[in-house]
Amino acid sequence: MPDFRDVFSVAYAAGLDGAGWLQQRRLEAAEAVGTAELPSAAEEEWRYSPVAKLSLEAYLPAPSGGTNGAAGAGDLLGSLRDRWGVLSALVVTFDGHLVSTQITPAAAAAGLAVRPLGDEPEPAGALGGVLGEPSDVFGLMNDAFCSAPVLLEIPRGARLTDPVAVVNVVSAPSLAVFPRLSVVVGDGAEAQVVNAFLSGPQEAFVVPVAELTVGPAARLQYLTLQELGPQAVGIEQTAATVASQGHLAIGLAAVGGGYARSRVDCTLSGRGATGDMSAMYFGDRDQVLDFRTFQNHSAPDTNSNLLFVGAVEDRARSIYSGLIRVGPEARGTDAQQTNRILKLSEGVWADSVPNLEIENNDVRCAHASSVGPIDEDHRFYLESRGVPPDVAERLIVEGFFGEVRGRLPVQSVAAGLDEVVRAKIGPGR
């Protein structure tokens, strides 16, 4: 039986372009991939996950010579302008390769820098400075086989009025891609960033990593859009650190993928830092949507508030596991964690596991979790006033998502998710 390590090999990593420091980093990670094992659902961080069923040998890495997909990316740019409106910058990767970078004159004048991380010298900490050492084989694979790591830098005091969008498109069948994004927001700066992942009906393996650095008194709104095709596997990790008085809002919108996993680690490292997380997700057919969150409070007077809201129907499955971790120095922490899942069919399954780990007594922490079907009182209320049953159910589902949709960062883009949810609900409701 073929082994995925035979394809995702040191030889392939050695053939990717880049500066000496980047090539060396890839080779070291590829060597580690050669001896690594897939994680097991017996591990707490992969509990309930179908990771044992993944067949990585079914995928091929993107050709190292580049892609001729620029024309297809051009078509995408036009559609995104209609859907998302005005952007400060638009960066497109196509089948694992960077094909387009557009920055408006106003954003360039403000100091926004967008560049591939393949130039000398090595930008200090741009890769791994927030995430640290990869925790599993998927993190190692991203380190080893990412062909186009991208760095966004927003300098001290800059204010970007419109979002920066990074769009990662997979078009070739059975392709494996490893997008990598680093966002650095300087002291007192403000920015909005959208990181989107799109694929068609074909099989695909998408393993993104994003590292977010929010400086003192800086503000970052960061939204991930996961709209992969129904046969795609997506295993995503976002790691963030927030300095003193900084504010980070992370949003996840997930509607695609056969198996799609998102892990978010947010570390509040400076006094008075705030890190909020929100997610809106909808699974149908045989989808598995898997979320793991870590709210890490390591400094005094830090705040975090998490709200994840999802729905599942047909035979879909939802997994949520979250941990609020309060360190011994993090007195005055205020942390909240809420996960709500709506079950729309008898055949669905939902797991929700909130956790607390507290090492300081001067804190205020709470978690809540709810899993259940549509409230029959709500249904009866609408139907008793003449609303047809299918319309009543649609209104209830749309209302269920209302609070979290309004909390997602980058509202100019998040507003478009209403139509995505309506499409998922379908005409039958």
Notes on the structure:
The protein has 429 residues and is an alpha/beta fold. It has one domain. The chain has ten helices and 22 strands. Strands 1, 4, 5, 7, 8, 10, 11, 13, 15, 17, 19 and 21 form a twelve-stranded mixed beta sheet that branches. Strands 3-2-6-9-12-14-16-18-20-22 form a ten-stranded mixed beta sheet. A hairpin with a 2-residue loop joins strand 2 and strand 3 (97-103).
Shape: globular
- Count every helix, treating DSSP H or I runs of 4 or more residues as helices: 10
Rg (CA only): 21 Å
**Span of the ends, CA to CA:** 46 Å
How many domains comprise the coordinates? 1
- Roughly what fraction of the amino acids lie in strands? 35-45%
Low-confidence stretches: none
Structural class comes to alpha/beta
DSSP strand tally? 22
Main sheet, how many strands, which sense, barrel? 12 strands, mixed
Average pLDDT confidence is 91
Percent helix, as a range, is 10-25%
Give structural attributes.
twelve-stranded mixed sheet; ten-stranded mixed sheet; 429 residues; 10 helices; 22% helix; alpha/beta; 22 strands
